[in-house]
């Protein structure tokens, strides 16, 4: 696919954040801004539009001025339900867009060439691609063809909740990314902030980069 292919970005923020004590991890402060600010700064140059997938009261994201969409599957069905919601939004609101790029709302250091690398790894037609690094495969970070939405809906109807199970079953192309340099150090590009100590480490990395 052409690396100039228009892509919509979806930030998946539907988790429970249990290990952080609840609430939205992406609204925590990282280097003086929210984690979500860092994610949007990295994603915005790569896509034509961004939407946020989140359940509950959407007004908590009002300051970002972006569409906020909830899962169409009830019961906090996991990231696969968030991917499905994003694809359905694109079908309704972004005519002509063939692919959606998803990132997790707790991965502030994902590559600035993520979408370009996904597109360059594909042939002429949209296909399913997921990110990989030295830490393994990261199925929540991927490029999803809009046309795959019915298959995701069918899988959700069968009780599938794991994005990784779906991407494996459907032969996703794995695109490998090297560690990201932040200041004088390196970090896995899909390092995610799950626990308070992860947030502290991310802040340390940013301080070293300033």
What does this protein structure show overall?
The protein is an alpha/beta fold. The chain has a single domain, classed as Spore Coat Polysaccharide Biosynthesis Protein SpsA, Chain A. Helix content is 29%, strand content 23%. It is built from six helices and eleven strands. The chain has a seven-stranded mixed β-sheet, with helices on both faces. A hairpin with a 2-residue loop joins strand 7 and strand 8. Helix 2 runs antiparallel to helix 4.
Architecture in CATH? Alpha-Beta Complex
Separation, N- and C-terminal Cα atoms: 37 Å
Cα-atom Rg, whole angstroms? 16 Å
Which superfamily, in CATH terms, is the homologous superfamily?
Answer: Spore Coat Polysaccharide Biosynthesis Protein SpsA, Chain A
Output the strand order for the largest sheet: 5-4-1-6-8-7-9
CATH topology: Spore Coat Polysaccharide Biosynthesis Protein SpsA, Chain A
Compressed to H and E, one letter per element, the order equals EEEHEEHEHEEHHEEEH
CATH class: Alpha Beta
How would a textbook summarize the main sheet? 7 strands, mixed
Oligomeric category: single chain
Say how many strands there are: 11
Helix fraction bin = 25-40%
Mean pLDDT: 91
Q: Please state the overall shape, judged from the principal axes of the Cα atoms.
A: globular
Strand content: 15-25%
